[in-house]
């Protein structure tokens, strides 16, 4: 009985440690790997539950005839198959293990700069990386991700995030949107709605096309805004990303004579394509969603 109680306490400690990093989105890595295996998610395994992950999850739920709520609940995880379970911290992981928790383990290891495949399978390379981590943290070097190793990985991730990341909280994102919207005389409610549609206010989202940040700016657009619209280099920071977005929207509003819906469509589809071909069906949907969100307090 004492052994069972002790095991339960250990599992609860791991779960609590994992929950403490929910803000970093590490659990989302497991979801992204599972959705990628089903051919529904083509983005990076970055542990960020952004718009791409949410769309892929909803597509999966529709395909599996589940309630489409954008949440990876027990039924959804069960339907995802072997990569949809078990939860991180619920078991000891070792060579040969397959599952959601292995994907999260690999994600945490990869964030330490190690080259480890994030595929949900605990193979030889993952074992080597676990041994390396254990060695560097004074743990028993056995290549097995037991309670102590898992807990140390989560704690190390949390400390690194606190020490190295700039403030990317929703409060700061909203404040910066307000600042740069005023600077470029753009409606801040429009920019907030646009930012929410693009990234859900998440600063670390990166698309397969290389668009990144809260405003999802691609490299070519960033260079154009720097050289043509602003006339100087803009730092690759949260503030810089939002500044580039606000400057671009001001220019699009100018090009389309202040017509907000046209400017939003040009933002999404590209001004040249929009002029020559008109709005695509997906563009019209995006514009409608942005305008609907603009009317709300987000």
Notes on the protein architecture:
The structure is a single chain. This protein is mostly helical and 298 residues long. It has 2 domains: 2-164, Muramoyl-pentapeptide Carboxypeptidase, domain 1; 170-294, Lysozyme, CATH 1.10.530.10. The protein has 14 helices and no strands. It has helices spanning 2-20, 26-37, 51-63, 74-79, 100-110, 124-136, 147-164, 170-183, 188-199, 219-230, 238-255, 260-269, 271-277, 281-294. The N and C termini lie far apart (50 Å). Mean pLDDT is 85; it is low at 1-24 and 161-165.
What's the SSE blueprint?
Elements: H1 2-20, H2 26-37, H3 51-63, H4 74-79, H5 100-110, H6 124-136, H7 147-164, H8 170-183, H9 188-199, H10 219-230, H11 238-255, H12 260-269, H13 271-277, H14 281-294
Helix pairs in contact: 1-7, 2-3, 2-5, 8-9, 8-11, 9-14, 10-11, 11-12, 12-13, 12-14
Q: What series of H and E elements makes up the topology?
A: HHHHHHHHHHHHHH
**CATH-assigned fold name of the largest domain:** Muramoyl-pentapeptide Carboxypeptidase, domain 1
**Computed structural class:** mainly alpha
- The CATH superfamily of the largest domain is PGBD-like superfamily/PGBD
Assembly state of the chains shown: single chain
Name the CATH class of the largest domain. Answer: Mainly Alpha
Low-confidence stretches: 1-24, 161-165
The CATH architecture of the largest domain can be given as: Orthogonal Bundle
Estimated radius of gyration: 22 Å
How would a crystallographer describe the biggest sheet? none
Overall number of structural domains: 2
Tell me the helix content: 55-70%
Instruction: Report the principal-axis shape.
Output: elongated
Strand content: under 5%
């Amino acid at each position: 009985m004492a052994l069972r109680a002790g095991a339960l306490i250990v599992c609860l400690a791991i779960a609590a440690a994992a929950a403490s990093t929910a803000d970093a989105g590490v659990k989302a890595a497991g979801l992204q790997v599972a959705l990628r295996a089903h051919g529904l998610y083509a983005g990076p395994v970055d542990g960020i539950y952004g718009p791409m992950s949410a769309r892929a999850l909803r597509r999966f739920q529709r395909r599996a005839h589940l309630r489409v709520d954008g949440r990876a609940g027990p039924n959804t995880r069960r339907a995802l198959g072997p990569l949809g379970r078990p939860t991180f911290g619920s078991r000891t992981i070792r060579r040969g293990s397959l599952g959601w928790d292995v994907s999260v383990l690999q994600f945490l290891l990869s964030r330490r700069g190690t080259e480890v495949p994030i595929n949900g399978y605990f193979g030889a390379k993952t074992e080597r990386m676990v041994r390396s981590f254990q060695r560097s943290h004074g743990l028993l070097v056995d290549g097995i991700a037991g309670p102590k190793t898992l807990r140390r990985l989560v704690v190390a991730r949390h400390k690194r995030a606190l020490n190295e990341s700039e403030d990317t909280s929703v409060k700061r994102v909203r404040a910066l949107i307000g600042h740069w919207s005023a600077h470029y005389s753009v409606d801040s409610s429009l920019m907030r709605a646009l930012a929410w549609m693009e990234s859900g206010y998440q600063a670390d989202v990166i698309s397969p096309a290389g668009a990144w940040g809260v405003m999802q700016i691609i490299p070519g657009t960033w260079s154009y805004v720097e050289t043509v619209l602003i006339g100087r280099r803009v730092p690759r920071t949260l503030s810089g990303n939002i500044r580039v977005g606000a400057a671009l929207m001001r220019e699009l509003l100018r090009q389309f004579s202040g017509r907000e819906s046209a400017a939003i469509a040009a933002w999404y589809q590209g001004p040249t394509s929009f002029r020559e071909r008109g709005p695509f069906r997906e563009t019209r949907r995006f514009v409608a969603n942005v305008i609907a969100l603009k009317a709300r307090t987000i």
